[in-house]
Specification:
The chain is α+β, with helices and mostly antiparallel strands. The protein folds into two domains: 158 residues, no CATH class; 67 residues, no CATH class. Helices cover 21% and strands 29% of the residues. The chain has seven helices and eleven strands.
Length: 252
């Protein structure tokens, strides 16, 4: 008798979050489409379903093979922080605000830059972003407690907060990486270069997400060592570094 084959009940996933779990891609467009919920009822409401279209994809983690160069993340707009749109937006602005000084972020300072005047989603079109699914799996960030109107019971007749997987932004090209401590890609590169040869530095720099977020900086690091525009040569020429007889760089 042939052995009966059983499907696995392990590794089940949420149906609406797609196969990718961590990736970088260039934000190409973000069109919106109006959608209606509970149409024709007293609870009818409208919202905008936003499609974040990415190109030049770099897949870092996925639950199944994904070979396409494009990917779309769909999120419904919301003004609530405790929503999937809120998680995406809050993590994006946290990184975008890394480019501003403490004074520019301080409402009591004359240098204060109002949130409405700071860089926003529309300014990210054409930039490479890094996204990770916060699902508490395989070392990824934990789920977020988000409101779900379907999670009703006697104590919560209109719904309640439940742990929900959501997309977080962890990198914006040329600006920063979550957990970077406010360091710029240039600061990070200079820290990595200290005490290394060119070969050691190149290997470490290419593996560093903060440095990789700045394509211009990455191009200078990848330039031939004979080029005056190479990163190490500009550091020597600018007096920030010296190089010893063994070819090891040291901060001046």
């Amino acid at each position: 008798m042939a052995e009966e084959s059983f499907p696995s009940v392990r590794g089940l996933v949420d149906s609406d979050i797609g196969p990718l779990r961590r990736f970088t891609g260039v934000l190409d467009s973000a069109p919106g489409e109006e959608q209606t919920w509970n149409e024709g009822t007293p609870n009818e409401r409208k919202s905008i379903r936003r499609s974040l279209n990415f190109r030049d994809l770099e897949v870092i983690e996925a639950i199944e093979p994904y070979q396409f160069p494009i990917y779309t993340v769909q999120l419904s707009e919301s003004n609530r922080k405790k929503s999937r749109w809120g998680v995406f937006g809050t993590t994006l602005t946290d990184i975008l605000d890394m480019q501003y000084t403490e004074a520019q972020l301080d409402p009591s300072s004359p240098e204060y830059v109002k949130p409405s005047d700071r860089m926003d989603l529309k300014d990210c079109v054409g930039k490479r972003l890094g996204l990770v699914m916060a699902d508490n799996e395989d070392g990824r960030p934990p789920k977020h407690d988000l409101f779900d109107g379907r999670a009703r019971d006697e104590e919560h007749p209109t719904g309640q907060d439940v742990p929900t997987p959501a997309w977080e932004v962890y990198m914006v090209e040329g600006i920063g990486v979550a957990g970077g401590g406010g360091r710029s890609p240039l600061d990070e590169a200079m820290g990595v270069l200290d005490g290394k040869t060119v070969a050691q530095f190149n290997d470490a720099a290419l593996a560093n997400e903060l440095i990789r977020s700045d394509v211009s900086l990455l191009a200078s690091i990848g330039a031939p060592v004979s080029s005056p525009a190479s990163f190490t040569n500009t550091m020597i020429a600018g007096g920030q570094f010296t190089k010893d007889e063994q070819g090891v760089f040291h901060k001046a």
